[in-house]
Amino acid sequence: MSNGMAEVNAALIQRLSDIVGPGGALTEPADVEPHVVEWRDLYRGRTPLVLRPGSTEEVSRILALCNETRTPVVPQGGNTSLVGGSIPFDGNDEVVLSLSRMNRVLEIDPLNDTMLVEAGTVLANIQQAADDADRLFPLRIGSEGSCQIGGNLSTNAGGVAVLRYGNARDLVLGLEVVLADGRVWNGLRGLRKDNTGYDLKQLFVGAEGTLGVITRAVLKLYPKPKAQRTAFVAVPGVRPALDLFSLARGIAGDRLTAFELMPRIALDMVRKNVPGVTDPLQGRHPWYVLLELSAARESDMGTMAEDLLAEAMEKGLVVDATIAASERQSKALWHIREEISGAQKPEGGSIKHDISVPVSKMAEFIERADAAVAALIPGVRSVAFGHVGDGNVHYNPLQPAGADKAAFLARWQEVNDLVHGIAHDLGGSISAEHGLGRMKREEILRYKSDVEMAMMRSLKATLDPNGILNPGKTI
């Protein structure tokens, strides 16, 4: 049992179930199962009850009762976490709070470029609602068809458009949050300037549900680009890719909206394990870049992509390239990038790392990490991909072909120590956009100062003195 708290009894289950009404409480094992297993099968827990409230008022009543009875609560969005942050422990004494029924787009204000949504709204539905209003909500991640905005904000999700638009933290103007004791803070302000004290909403962005439960959010919208170019580019190495990035920024400025790096092994795995994917280019190349340019008008775009690639080829930074001739082709190129994570799963064990380093250090990080991990585990397959523009590398050593998966994964900490140590040495972070969850809760102690950890614990003690919100996660 977590935190030494009492097991949830039948009487409490009934009281909590009464709050959400028929259909809002799940107790049958088959119904509960999807809420206690991480999608990679890395974490599995137990819970006697999954609550699916339909309103902020119900969330408030649930947390007030759980706080009174010292019942731990695990907030859960789309359950796409990669660090175990949304999975209960196996003590069967935690209640899962799923926001999936609170899934409405409540209001769109095109003139103010804002959208009011409930926390359980699926990210892809938010993107579509913005598009229908001739606006853009730019948060783009691989799980956007199932992840929910409350989870995106609670983990400060990043994705492929951070280069131009920033993380989830940069895309929210206001929040409604239910505190641990059931009180509701209404901070739903659609203001871009509000200099009236502490920016309280930012306490809850990236807090992984440990300080409060986000129930509604005011999101930033942007004018919808009317011109886009997507190019799939072969480069001879990571260092030339970084030089290409510098060249692209110099030519395109903020019209460069995405710049994604991937190795040949990633493309091979996507082609092997995802039906219908073909190689965009002739021949095999060691590294690839997927870049996107966006502009408000076609006249602002012109031949920028063609000119950029022509100059890059003259400088030896690009070996081959193709520019999507249609939206369909563009989506096909992006599909390759989006399927890299899932395509690794059939290949066996993968030790995940979500690293950020200064952009100037990215090549050195990959080179040093590849050498260190290969020396530790001969035959390991390195899959390093990610967001060049913000220095985020998803560094995933895969088990050697034919190796024992369990034996490989048993070396997780050894590999973490190597990779995280190199990232730290280069002035980086061990978590760029996935959060800490339970996977990195202890690991972070090696890299954050005592002062930082004391400040975080003080916030937790102030906002959740009984420790009921997602205990055992983050800190």
UniProtKB/TrEMBL annotation:
Which Enzyme Commission number(s) are on file for it?
A: 1.-.-.-
List the source organism: Oceanibacterium hippocampi
FAD-binding PCMH-type domain mapped to chain residues: 43-224
Sorted UniProt keywords = FAD, Flavoprotein, Oxidoreductase
**Which InterPro entries does its entry note?**
FAD-bd_oxidored_4_C, FAD-bd_PCMH, FAD-bd_PCMH-like_sf, FAD-bd_PCMH_sub1, FAD-bd_PCMH_sub2, FAD-linked_Oxase-like_C, FAD-oxidored/transferase_4, Oxid_FAD_bind_N
Per its UniProt record, what SUPFAM superfamilies does this chain match?
A: FAD-binding/transporter-associated domain-like, FAD-linked oxidases, C-terminal domain
Gene3D superfamilies given for it? 3.30.465.10, 3.30.70.2190, 3.30.70.2740, Uridine Diphospho-n-acetylenolpyruvylglucosamine Reductase, domain 2 (3.30.43.10), Vanillyl-alcohol Oxidase, Chain A, domain 4 (1.10.45.10)
Name the domain of life: Bacteria
Q: Name one GO biological process term.
A: respiratory electron transport chain
Q: Which Pfam families match?
A: FAD-oxidase_C (PF02913), FAD_binding_4 (PF01565)
Q: Which residues are listed as membrane-spanning? A: none
Say which family it is in. Belongs to the FAD-binding oxidoreductase/transferase type 4 family.
Protein name (database record): Putative FAD-linked oxidoreductase
Does Secreted appear among the keywords? no
| Cofactor(s) needed for function | FAD
Class of enzymatic activity (EC top level)? oxidoreductase
Alphabetically, the GO molecular function entries are: FAD binding; oxidoreductase activity
